[in-house]
Amino acid sequence: MESDTEPSTPVSTLEATPETEYENRIANLEAAPTQSTTEYFSWQQLADISERLTGLGEQYGALTTVCTGDYVALGTERGSVVVTDYLGRVKMALGSAASAYGAVSALAFSADHMVLVAGYAQGFVVVWDWAKGTTAAVSRPRQASDSPDAAGHPAGTAITCVGFIGASRHRYISGSGGGLVLYHHIVRRLLTTMSTQPLASDGGVLFEAAALARGTHACVTDDLGLVAILTDTNLTIMKTRHGVEQQYRAGFQTAEGARRRIVARRPYAGSVAWQSAQRIERPATAPAESDAMLPKLAYSWGAHIHILAVHLDYNVSGNGTPLGSAAPRVRFEREAEWTAIEDVVYCRWIDSTTLLYMTQSQRVFVFETQFAQETEISTVPPARIVGRAWVTLTTGVEAEPSYAAAMGVHRRRLFAHCGSALYVGRLLSWAERLELLATQGQLVDAIALATGFYQARTGQIVVGLPRVQRPGDAGQLRRQALVGGRLADLMRRALQTTLAIDRAPRATDAEVRALATVCVQACLALSDMQILFGDVFESFSSEPYRLAFLETVEPFILSGAITRVPAQMLNALIDGFGSTLSHVQRLGAVLYALDLRHGEFDIDRVLGCCRQLRLWRTFARVWLDLGDPIAPVASIIAAATQENELVGNELVDQEQLDDEVPSAVIFDYLDMVMRGRSYPDGQLLKPQARAEAYSARVAQLVFPPAADDAKGTFHTLRALLAIGTERLLATLGHILNDPFTSYINLIVKPSSPQTSRDSGRALRRASQVKSLVQVVVDALHALTMAAHSHPEQNILAPRQIGLLASFALILYATRFPLVYLTDATVSEWSDVLLTLNDTSTRVERENAFELLFKLNPPPEYADYIDRVRGAGFFRVLEHIYYTLGQFEDALRTFLDHPDFVQRRAVFAAIQDLGAASRPHATESVCRFVVSNAAELVEVDADAFVETVETVEALDHISVVDALDMHPQLQFSYMRALLDPAPEQHTPSDERSPPNIGLPDEQHIVVYPFQSLVPDNAQSANKFSQALHERYLELMCQYSPGAVLPYLKQHADQGVEPLRLASVQTVCARYGVSDGLVWALVRLGDFSAALLTLLKEVDCETSRVRAAVPETSDAELSLSDGAAGPGEQEIQRNSGLTDAGRELLEDHLRVAEHCIGGCVDVCKAALTRLGKDTPSDASSDEAQNKYRSLVSAQLCDLWLTLLRTALSHLHATNRTLDALPDVTSSATREAWQLVSSRQRWMLQSVLDALIFAASPASSFISLRHIIQQLIVTGAPNDKAVVDSVKQSGAARSLDIAEIQHLLAVAVSAYKTEAQLMALTNVLVDYDLFTTFAQLMRSQKQGWRVPTDAQPSLALSARDDLCCVECREPLFADQRQEHVMAKLRGQITQYYESSALRVLDLHIFEDRSAQWKWMKLRTASTFDPYLGSTRQKAADDQVVLFKCGHGFHQRCMPDLAHKDLASECAPECVQCTDRSAMFRTGTTG
Question: Residue 103: CB partners within 8 Å, gap ≥ 6?
């Protein structure tokens, strides 16, 4: 490394500017007009130097690097370094002949700002003594021809970072983009020499390298020469003094405590910055070593910012004193972590606790490390900051540009090279920020910011104010002392400026409200209400601004921030909010929220306003705060009892003030005050004595002692009853249930003196102490008796008397259960409850009277029977009868009760009495049930049946006999008894056919007819057969639609309680066709069942024909002779009406159901007759004869059904063809609808017939039915024939029409045949699979059965062998592994769920319709059956289901025949030909 001196061209030899001159110049620059100013950061353009940058660029080259200190050093692309002051005056131009170095890529001042170190694009590093204009040292790049040990950066590699270490001029570092960092040391002894050592050579991307500079406080770290090196993979801290040594190393990793986002990718942006040791202010009592803050290191990887703190570890003794003179050990610990919103490209320390950083989009932030608080300085800088992509140009890696050569921080100021100008920015102090906002006219913002300063809630960096560690500490007190006065001055200044009378233009409403808001917030923060209600309120007192100020103060009052206001403010609120309709309710809320207990204000004005505006909640609350709970009661009651509460006050809207209705307010007020709570918030009143006093005073007002004049004494109580009796009683119940009221005792004084009879002197009665409950009961008793005794005075309404008496008695019974009333009092209460003529309170009076009787039983119950019955107290009457032992009369009271629930309770009473052990009670129950059976059934038949089941003394037969005179009620009872869940049945239309279905095999009867259940099995039923048959007969009369579900349900239970012959007779008698058909099918009389349903079809068809409108032109002219030709044409062309269509479809739907029932009958006949076999049909001839008889009967059934369907369709078609041309559209449309539906019925019959005549059935011959139908045609219907003759268009049923009807049937028949064939194939496959599973259990597949040839041993290879020749069926004599592969394939086929080697081919045999499967294995099996290929063509394999396998050549009958065309052969071992599989061996 060379150290020579290079001459330069000095421009000026001025001395360095002193620090005071520097501060003055910077201050003068900042005082100039600003280009871009934010509220907390000020950007200023260095105008003088910026104006000269263009000229300097033309003279020395374009600007590439900027370094700021006491002077400004500018590097150019021509390799020159120009040093200027901040006014732009050039002090020195260095390196005018150094163009070979390349462009200047890095610059750095020494600690005294007199020496510069410059890095160049070609790898040179030069130390300039710029004041002299000479070089102190030059480090040349290492060429490719140099030795590997040569020091220097690679030639052509740009130097991206340089810097001096500590306060030295001779120790510095340099780093290139390729990751090489060198430590340089200039040694000045006899000769000036230079030593260079590499600090890092990872070969990665070097983001930045920084050396620790000397701070304001001397520290041990200054002697270490610490250097931080940041690459894309590692952070390394090296010690350069007294030997190079690594102190710390950390690899890149995602920050675990990232607050905003996590970036897991490799970073391609980074920056590193040291904060040197600083002297800080400490209290005088603090130790000396705490006067300094040790160095810190901030570095960023991508978006993650990390801060390392330096700690010194000393070797100390037990008392804490250092041992020896050994230097402490330096330790680095992670102090803080932060994640920015995007990648960080530049970071520098502004002071010891404030870090400035810039992101890739040039958004600048300030981060306070002590409180982890981030503040964005400016979203957009004054201009685009110029960055240099030295790393990308050097390494080719796409990284973010470097901004270290374009930005710098010096003495808490940020310098940035933006385009063709140089800018300086700094954080403003709190006072400067406030003054700046005030100067710009942003007084509202200034007040809001000052309030935040005062409360320490700005959320921004604040310069010049002490930090608040906790509320109330010294920092907060000093902050408030500094900011408080300035905040008050700002408010006064803003009020004078904004609300000035002569201001033009006048402040807008938004400005006024914003100013009022910040002023209120500021006064609350200052806790100075004098300013708020003094200067601030006076400033807003003028008319244009007063309402806006009041509306601004309102939310602060409602939130509780302001609880008291002066009298002037309160009057202003009343005047402002009470003048408009929209503010009335808001005024009530404001008055409610204010504390009006203390303060000087006009109470009459407030109460008068509340009364006038109907703010009753506020009215009551104000009186309560004033300590008078009685005063609001009278006023609110008077307002509530008015005929029209809101007449005369047009400002009040009822819907808006629902919660202010006096009828609702009064009861809420009484409820809370009498329970010791404040109104309306419901908080407990304190102290306790005050709450009790308020409650007692209100109670004495509402419930005064009784007097002779009840109407005048209970004035308040009667007024409350008039407002709402039910609401008052509910409120009293809530009050008396509160535990607080149990402590309320009232001293009751006598209402009037008592006069002595002897002397005429007045005797004073003693006062009594009563509880609140007793006072309420006494007052209600006195008022009730007075109103009942003097009805002419209209003291109370009858309903009010009943409710009060009931409430008082229930309250007495629940609170004083052990206190007995006198006979006179009981008699008074009884008279009121029994003689009161008010049905609306009967339930309440009955409950009260029942409690009165239980607590105070009368001497003679019989005296009350008539009176209780007259009052309708049936529950009390029941109690009396029970007491007297008259059980029948007691049960009768339930049936006489008007309430259904009480009437239904009779069954529970019957069960209770039936379970009693007293014989008299049981006999009474039996007599009552028999004599009142009809009424009990009307109440609830199911509960009646359950009751009879429960009571042992009762039986169903007696009840049924008692209901003989009431057949419909008898049916209801028997339905609950025999069919307890009729709702599960879905009764069909009474005209609908039965859904016969196919009966189970266990219910099939032996042909001919026989009862389903023998007579000896009827005893298994719980009830007699006669009872069931009686129920069936009643069901046919009253619920015919439920007959069939009932029959089906009991038939499915296994043992039927009905005789089928009886069912047939009863259903036939009452015309229940569905039950009749069901019985005939069960009896096996299918012909009768079919004829029954066909009669229903005929009836419905007749109804259909009658429902068709018959209207012609002649009828139209007769019906409306006045109608013209046009109207007649409209009537003729009008289609079928909706009502007519619905009627037709209803009848056709019933006919369709009947046809479906006929089909079910035919199917049931096929199922039953096809399975029955006569017991004597042992021979084949007898069986064939029986089958012929069954076939004939089945064919007759289907033929009859088909003929009927054809006859109806034929008649409809003839009628449709015979319609004249003058027939109306409605008639024609109706017949077309009938024809289409009947055709569909015929098609459904044909489909069912084809399915029944499938190849699987041998009883029905479709060919025979078709032949009979063709020969006989449709049956002769006289009505149809007559109608056809009249129309003159008679024609017979021909073969063409039958072919047309059976066309679809033939197609369906073919499809059925194919389905049967496929079914047979699938069945064979299932059998084949089952057989294969049996074989697989032997682990090898097919084997020769043990009983076939026991003398022959199996093949040695244990393969599949032929039964005859004992040779393998599948074998390859040439290769053993082929056979093993074959066995594996077979096993895989059997064990796999997917059919991978199975190929189905269906073959038909014309003689026996025999289906079989061929297992084709051309792609899988390749067996070689023999030693020659000629023999393989003849060897095919035949496998039987029995398990035997043969070669074809081993079977004499099949030796030379084609297996694919042959019928099923027989196994020679077991003659099994029921099923066989042949496996071809095609290759």
Answer: 61, 64, 75, 76, 77, 78, 79, 120, 121
3-state secondary structure (DSSP) of residue 18: coil
* CB distance 590 to 573 below 8 Å: yes
For residues 341 and 1367, give the distance between their C-alpha atoms in angstroms, rounded to a whole number.
85
Q: Which amino acid is at 869?
A: R
Residue 750 banded pLDDT, cuts 50, 70, 90:
low
389, 354 Cβ separation under 8 angstroms: no
pLDDT tens for each residue of 1185-1201: 888 888 888 888 888 88
Residues 6+ apart with CB under 8 A from 642: none
- The CA dihedral of 12, 13, 19, 25, to the nearest 10 degrees, is -20
- Give the tokens for residue 591: 């008055």
pLDDT of residue 673 exceeding 90? yes
DSSP at 532: I
Sequence-distant (6+) residues with CB within 8 A of 163 are 108, 117, 172, 173, 209, 210, 211, 213
Task: Please report, as a single letter, which amino acid is at residue 1315.
Answer: L
Which tokens go with 1192? Answer: 């004939």
Residue 172 phi/psi, 5-degree rounding, is -155, 170
The DSSP secondary structure of 349-415, one letter per residue, reads ESSSSEEEEEETT--EEEEETTTTEEEEEESS-SSPBP-B-HHHHHH----PPB-TTTEEEETTEEE
Alpha-carbon gap, residue 1145 to 520, rounded angstroms: 82
Cα 80 to chain centroid distance, Å, stands at 71
Task: Count Cα neighbours of 468 within 13 Å in the Cβ-side half-sphere.
Answer: 17
Tell me how far CA of residue 354 lies from CA of 275, 460, 831, in angstroms.
10, 12, 92
Report angle CA 1192, 1255, 1310 to the nearest 5 degrees. Answer: 120
Residue 1315 and residue 259: Cα distance in Å, rounded? 72
CA distances from 1332 to 1336, 1389, 1402, 1448 (A): 6, 10, 20, 21
Please give the Cα distance from 514 to 1148 (Å, whole number): 82
Which residues lie closer than 8 Å to 1134 by C-beta, 6 or more apart? 1224, 1225, 1226
Which residue, 1378, 1380, 1360, 1362, is CA-closest to 1370?
1360
Phi and psi angles of residue 1003, each rounded to the nearest 5 degrees, phi first: -100, 5
Q: Averaged over 1033-1058, what is the pLDDT?
A: 78
Could you tell me if 662 and 639 are in contact, meaning their C-beta atoms sit under 8 angstroms apart? Answer: yes
162, pLDDT greater than 80: yes
Tell me how far apart the alpha carbons of residues 326 and 1377 are, in angstroms, rounded to a whole number: 86
User: 572 Cβ partners below 8 Å, 6+ apart?
Assistant: 537, 541, 546, 550
Number of DSSP helices (H) and strands (E) in the chain, helices first: 50, 38
Residues ≥6 apart with Cβ < 8 Å to 659:
617, 665
Count CA atoms within 13 Å of residue 420 on its CB side: 9
The alpha carbon dihedral of 1175, 1178, 1180, 1182 has a sign of: negative
pLDDT at 814 over 50: yes
